[in-house]
Amino acid sequence: MYQNDTIAAISTALGEGAIGIVRLSGPDAISMANKVFKGKDLAKVDSHTIHYGHVINPKNNHVIDEVMTSVMKGPRSYTMEDIVEINCHGGIIAVQRTLEVVLDQGARMAEPGEYTKRAFLNGRIDLSQAEAVMDLIQAKTDKAMQASVNQLQGSLSSKISVLREEMLQTLAQVEVTIDYPEYDDVEEMSLTQLKETAESVKASIEQLLRQASQGRLFREGINTAIIGRPNVGKSSLLNFLSGVDKAIVTDIEGTTRDTIEEFINIRGVPLRLIDTAGIRQTDEIVEQIGVEKSRQVMEKADLIILILNQAQALNDIDLELLDLTKDQQRIILLNKSDLPTVLDHDQLAKYVDASSIITTSITEESGLDQLEAMIEDRFLGGHLQAADVNYLLNTRHTQLLKQAIEALEEVIDATDMALPVDLIQIDYTRAWDLLGEITGDSVQDELLNKLFSQFCLGK
Ligand code: GDP
């Protein structure tokens, strides 16, 4: 199943760096590289060795760059094909010229993700591992990176394989029972077997989804909404946390009109911060859109930071916000603690548990350490360890798993109704196929192309 052409691309980020790598993969990788490399005969070197020399333009023998060239012979390589990596001096020109002379030798420019695609097509990694490569590249925190590495090593794949194997065995047993109908209760036995397996596989998938929802927090960030009525300090907090003057801080009420998103890393917890317009009743149209957005944002937030101004009494809007967020994961900031206290703490205590209240002065940067500590504690406090984020499911995985659950539920219902076994097998097999799509055991070309095109060039 090896590809018959040889591909080449620049595998490092474009720009000035200490080195830039041109990578070739395919049956002619070594012979093509040999034509542009002077220093050693690459056809004769051992696999997994690196060699000093120069890249030249064979047309005029001009030296393009001084390089180190490594040779990795298939199948012990990333793609399982012969790979040559030419390490040029950084800088755009040398790397591009090197790529050009390699292409002149007949190599084809690689598509984004094509090396990883070949690793998949050649059977070295499965689809969920290929996706893990992409996650690894895009990981925003150490935890997310660790989870991607686990996935790359096949944690999701092996889990799915076990489930599929379990399903296959039951199916085989059912086939056997049907082929040898010497017993009277053949149908009944088959129904019981199918039902039991469907229930057990369904339970495993549900558990996987639960664990992965934790993983999602680390991959996509914890959707965090900073809310509070106008002028309590929402923009100031956002600016402090993100370290960028992106949100506009102002004394005029309601100036943060649109939502601004910012991705930040707080003590290893990735937060996707959404600063929203101050929630208040208003006649102005732009403001209303902002207010409506705030409500929507609040609904999909994993964490809410509700800011109150402790230099003022609680008003109706504060109370409304306290009520709206009461069932959500929330942290309440009593801000402007540098000003005299007006807010009635006893009144507040009726609505909020003291353990989620922090007193802050954003302008004087006090109390913000406690805020960071509380976020760390809530999301990393013992209950969410890297082990729990072993399974990183992307939307594609989640959808397939949910569809598989639906198919299994049909199986369970159908067995309860004692429908004919061959009819039940249709849904059963569909669930099996859906699981197979996660690892790429049953997968269409179109999907593959779409997936790998999301990779960066040269990977
Ligand atoms: P937003 O409307 O909720 O986004 O509030 P802003 O962040 O724009 O802040 C409104 C005003 O309150 C600005 O003048 C800030 O400098 C000020 N402010 C924010 N935090 C504090 C604080 O802790 N103490 C005091 N005294 N003023 C603050």
Please explain how this structure is put together.
- The protein is built from 15 helices and 13 strands.
- Residues 245-260, 276-287 and 382-388 have low confidence and may be disordered.
- By secondary structure, it is an alpha/beta fold.
- It has three domains: 7-125, Gyrase A, domain 2, CATH 3.30.1360; 131-217 and 394-440, Four Helix Bundle (Hemerythrin (Met), subunit A) (Up-down Bundle); 225-386, P-loop containing nucleotide triphosphate hydrolases (Rossmann fold).
- A hairpin with a 4-residue loop joins strand 4 and strand 5 (62-72).
- The strands form two sheets. The chain has a seven-stranded mixed β-sheet with strand order 3-4-5-6-2-1-7.
- Helix 4 runs antiparallel to helix 5 (142-152), helix 6 (155-179) packs antiparallel against helix 7 (186-220) and helix 6 (155-179) packs antiparallel against helix 14 (421-439).
- The structure holds guanosine-5'-diphosphate.
- Guanosine-5'-diphosphate is lined by residues 228, 230-236, 249-251, 256, 278, 335-336, 338-339, 361-363.
